[in-house]
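Q: Convert this sequence to structure tokens.
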Amino acid sequence: MAQLWGGRFTKETNKLASDFNASISFDKRFYEQDIKGSIAHVMMLRKQGILLDEEKKEIIAGLESILRDVESGKLEITNKFEDIHSFVEANLIERIGESGKKLHTGRSRNDQVALDMKLYIRSEVLALEGLVLELMRELLDIMKHHTETIMPGFTHMQKAQPTTLAHYMGAYFEMFKRDHSRLQDIYKRMNTCPLGAGALAGTTYPLDRKYTAELLGFDGPTLNSLDSVSDRDYLIELMSALSTMMMHLSRFCEEIILWNSNEYQFIELDDSYSTGSSIMPQKKNPDIAELIRGKTGRVYGALISILTTMKGLPLAYNKDMQEDKELVFDAIDTAKGCLVLFAGMLSTTKFCTERMEASCLSGFINATDAADYLVNNGVAFRDAHEIVGRLVLYCIDKEIGLEDMSLEEFKEISPVFEEDIYEAISLKTCVNKRKTIGAPGPAAMNRVIELYTEYLEEFHSFDRYSVKTY
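A:
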């Protein structure tokens, strides 16, 4: 196995130990980041007079040829090498000779891998932001079409008050808006360049770390070389943000699964996002929603793993930190896949609006409005609450709804009731009179939809960050 550190050793590394130590099988994802980071490093070395102009040109041409060959499939990244850094450097030396040996001047694998990880994660954060925005756009589209689609709202899994499908979708829009905001914050906080930190104490070469940071699109260099190679906070933050986002997806999937059931029949999932049973021909299973719900635990596991790995590590770099990559890669891949699939499933879902509204006719979801009617007619709320409780008991005994009671029956329980009680407890009135911002009334909902539209338009072109790599 090709290594960068053999000079001090007199014996070959045990084959099992070498394989155990190697990271090429997973850090080969970094080939582009490693090469582009190396190009920026070489440009800085030339600016500082550490390399000759001809050496700079030769090294950059060699690195660019490696990048082209890897991307075209002409050059394969194999387990012959310990890691992606040794792969790139060994291939560079093979292609251009002695000049290639100067590539590593003024840097360590410690700051190199820290840079590669940051460059990779930064691009993945942007990709995740884009996917969350696409899901939010799908939610907003549903909201725009369903401001007057009445459905039951629930507490404790019991029908509680009438709301609208737009209002329901808006709750998830808020969740994913917070997810989007967290990803933005992570990007801002992590966007400092560790290259030039060396192994832990910087270097004696006159590096221009600010210039390197500018070339790679960072806000500036990291300010402590020990922390530069030890920091994995941004990964922990990302895993935490992804865990929260997956929790939101999982909750939404749980509702999709319930709404798709025979008992609810609020939605019909498209055939392209459903599967059947091997034995029961009538079945149409919400497998995508169930799998997303299940994969949430996988992302949680990544967060717990990296927290556990980092909790006892002294400064600076420790080999334990190599364990960050596989679990972070898997969590990102999982979250991205779930976002894409969920958005597709949602966009093809048919909402059974008549069934949703019909479901509101049971469960006494207009009981609070009946109490508000009494309050508006001079009855103290606590007394109104007790009166409506008696109404509900009466209806349960008669197996009817509040709206099915005669005015005489209302008056037997409270003489305050008049003919206008029926209008007061109608589903449309129950929803429409809730006009405060954040409520489901169409007027309030349309104002929120305007705000959400403005939010998404702010990121329409999705060019917040112009990243210059070299």
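The longest helix spans residues 109-145.
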